[in-house]
């Protein structure tokens, strides 16, 4: 089988699995789980085979004319370079782990067949984006992912939080997709093709007439899909969906698509210095703001969600300084340890019966209840904090090293201010990331108080995938020195300067958080669960239906409550109440857009009912009154009719005489 044929099967198999799973959902429920897992697993194996054959060498291209358009043609094209084949392996492996994990996590869910089919379709769409060599075909996968995310985030549609989160995710991402679509058409009009190779050739030759405008239009779609400031607010709310969905969205699909697209079209962005400045500022604000917000969250999944936003900021920062190798390396590294973190979070949520770190901090022995999650998440959190020798250290160092090169003027065409912006923000975020990763680990696994509930060992399908993802979390960074050919020949050896600085920042964040935890843990042990009052400013907490329903009575309304013994609250001080709400960005959007839109809708409704309908009602009232008058004249009395006829005849005769006399 040729490499191109194998590559076609990679996105096709999950799609066929999704169709078959939907058809077999009711008629053959026993086939649903095999149809969810096997096509995705086979797709992952084929993705590995494609990557092995491609070998990081010359890109493989294949295309066939999809349809004649009369102007710019649309081709069903494949483009297999080192980036594409590695990202496809990441998507396939993570999606397979998510499908396996879901067989146990949602084993009693009656909507599992549709859920599994949507996950397969989601995977197929992302693989189409990764392998596509034509922007219009890529756009198909791009939009299918948005639709799938709407249904998957809203899986627990009975809860208000899930309904609101799914609608918000759909609207915010579509808000970015409108200018993105315009940018795609403008880019194709300038280049004369939708083929990515042709567009890159035109960008290098300077044939893109308005590179700044096109780049900014594309960035709007990227900001929406990859949850970058200011369109990132949908991602933390998307935690209302099942935990495996969170792992899939945050690690390998949806949010990775925007970063991957910019990496593929990077010459279009480097053609405009203004676009690079905007990208750098967006990345810096995203990194620092999301790290501060993560430090204030009580829901373990929201901590990880804001963490994803920040790590995506690192990737866009690497792209801003013109290093797509570092961006894709961090994308792959982050995908492995973030999937592990989310799936591990699902295990501890099942075991603890709550998403709340405040509740877990008052449980003793939770680490002993879930040893698999404890050890694997410990390593994943170390990778997130960029502690050597784990994968996150190497990939984050690649980003910071690229920023240092740009800041010191060693990256031609990249403004020095862009490099300094990314470098300073990246170092500050490294400190904050280590702090919130340490806080999560201490509060979740080293609580003090009553013994954690014992619900038995988690299913093998849930614990097993943690160890599968543990391997790349540990080994990917160490193997990176052997993979420069996969990343445009870029050396992935950490730079000494940035290694010392970022590791120092990470260790400082770790030690400061540990000291704050030691100071507050004694108070936490003395504070009973019911003594933590609900935050009047916080959004109402809604936990995952299948995990919390049986345990809610044990912990009451503690989830989402502000804990006075929280080390994050102690370190943030007055900033905590702003950070916990994401710096009120949703409130700003509500004031600027939601309320005016609702006000305009009320005005339109008033005008429609009281003005437009008034004319309609008036047009109907006159005939109705005339009909009523005529109806009164119809008495049924013959004498009355004859009298009226006589009177009318007299009137007509008099009128005729008067007219004749006047003439």
TrEMBL record:
Membrane topology: Multi-pass membrane protein
GO molecular function: NADH dehydrogenase (ubiquinone) activity; NADH dehydrogenase activity
Record bears the keyword Secreted: no
Domain NADH-Ubiquinone oxidoreductase (complex I) chain 5 N-terminal: 68-115
Gene Ontology cellular component terms for the protein in this record: endomembrane system; membrane
InterPro entries: NADHpl_OxRdtase_5_subgr (IPR018393), ND/Mrp_TM (IPR001750), NU5C-like (IPR003945), Proton_antipo_N (IPR001516)
Matching Pfam families: Proton_antipo_M, Proton_antipo_N
Domain NADH:quinone oxidoreductase/Mrp antiporter transmembrane: 132-403
Transmembrane segments: 6-24, 31-52, 83-102, 114-131, 137-157, 169-188, 245-263, 269-296, 327-352, 373-394, 414-443, 464-483, 495-517, 641-660
Highest rank taxon of the organism: Bacteria
Localization annotation: Endomembrane system; Membrane
Keywords: Membrane, Transmembrane, Transmembrane helix
Database matches in NCBIfam families: NDH_I_L
Protein name, per record: NADH-quinone oxidoreductase subunit L
Source species of the chain: Streptomyces cinnamoneus (Streptoverticillium cinnamoneum)
């Amino acid at each position: 089988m040729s490499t191109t044929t194998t590559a076609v099967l990679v996105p096709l198999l999950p799609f066929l699995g999704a169709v078959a799973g939907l058809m077999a959902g009711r008629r053959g429920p026993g086939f649903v789980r095999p149809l969810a897992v096997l096509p995705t697993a086979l797709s992952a194996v084929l993705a590995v085979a494609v990557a092995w054959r491609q070998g990081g060498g010359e890109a493989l291209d294949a295309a066939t004319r999809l349809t004649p358009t009369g102007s710019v043609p649309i081709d069903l094209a494949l483009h297999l370079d080192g980036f594409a084949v590695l990202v496809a392996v990441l998507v396939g492996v993570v999606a397979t782990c998510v499908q396996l994990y879901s067989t146990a996590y949602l084993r009693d869910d009656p909507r599992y067949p549709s859920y599994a089919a949507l996950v397969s379709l989601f995977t197929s769409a992302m693989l189409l984006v990764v392998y596509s060599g034509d922007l219009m075909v890529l756009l198909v996968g791009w939009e299918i992912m948005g639709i799938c995310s709407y249904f998957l985030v809203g899986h627990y549609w009975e809860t208000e939080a899930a309904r609101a989160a799914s609608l918000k995710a759909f609207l915010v991402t579509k808000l970015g997709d409108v200018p993105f679509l315009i940018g795609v058409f403008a880019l194709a009009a300038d280049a004369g093709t939708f083929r990515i190779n042709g567009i890159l050739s035109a960008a290098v030759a300077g044939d893109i007439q308005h590179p700044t405008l096109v780049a900014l239009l594309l960035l709007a779609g990227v900001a929406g899909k990859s949850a970058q400031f200011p369109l990132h607010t949908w991602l933390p709310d998307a935690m209302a969906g099942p935990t495996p969905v969170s792992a899939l969205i945050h690690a390998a699909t949806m949010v990775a698509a925007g970063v991957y697209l910019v990496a593929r079209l990077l010459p279009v962005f480097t053609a405009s210095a203004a676009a690079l400045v905007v990208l750098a500022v967006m990345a810096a604000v995203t990194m620092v703001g999301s790290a501060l917000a993560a430090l204030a969250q009580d829901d373990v999944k929201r901590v990880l969600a804001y963490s994803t936003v920040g790590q995506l900021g690192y990737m866009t920062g690497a792209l801003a300084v013109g290093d797509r190798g570092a961006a894709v390396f961090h994308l792959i590294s982050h995908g492995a340890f973030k999937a592990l973190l989310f799936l591990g979070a699902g295990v501890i949520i099942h075991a603890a019966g709550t998403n709340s770190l405040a509740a877990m901090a008052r449980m003793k022995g939770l680490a002993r209840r879930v040893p698999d999650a404890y050890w694997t998440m410990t390593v994943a959190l170390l990778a997130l904090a960029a502690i050597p020798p784990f994968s996150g250290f190497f990939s984050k160092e690649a980003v910071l090293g690229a920023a240092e090169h740009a800041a010191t003027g060693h990256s031609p065409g990249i403004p020095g201010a862009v490099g300094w912006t990314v470098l300073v923000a990246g170092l500050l975020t490294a400190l904050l990331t280590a702090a919130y990763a340490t806080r999560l680990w201490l509060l979740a696994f080293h609580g003090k108080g009553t013994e954690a509930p014992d619900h038995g060992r988690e299913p093998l399908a849930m614990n097993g995938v943690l160890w599968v993802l543990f391997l790349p979390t540990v080994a990917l960074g160490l193997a990176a020195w052997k993979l420069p050919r996969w990343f445009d020949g870029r050396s992935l050896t950490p730079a000494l300067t940035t290694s010392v600085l970022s590791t120092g920042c990470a260790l400082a964040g770790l030690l400061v958080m540990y000291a704050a935890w030691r100071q507050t843990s004694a108070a936490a042990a003395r504070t009973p669960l019911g003594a933590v009052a609900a935050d009047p400013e916080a959004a109402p907490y809604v936990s995952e239906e299948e995990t919390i329903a049986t345990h809610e009575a044990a912990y009451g309304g503690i989830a989402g409550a502000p804990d006075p013994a929280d080390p994050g609250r102690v370190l943030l001080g007055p900033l905590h109440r702003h950070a916990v709400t994401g710096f009120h960005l949703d409130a700003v959007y509500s004031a600027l857009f939601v309320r005016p839109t609702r006000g305009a809708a009320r005005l339109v409704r008033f005008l429609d009912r009281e003005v437009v309908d008034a004319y309609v009602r008036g047009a109907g009232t006159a005939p109705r009154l005339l009909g009523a008058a005529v109806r009164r004249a119809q008495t049924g009395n013959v004498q009355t009719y004859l009298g009226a006829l006589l009177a009318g005849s007299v009137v007509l005769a008099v009128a005729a005489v008067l007219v004749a006399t006047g003439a």
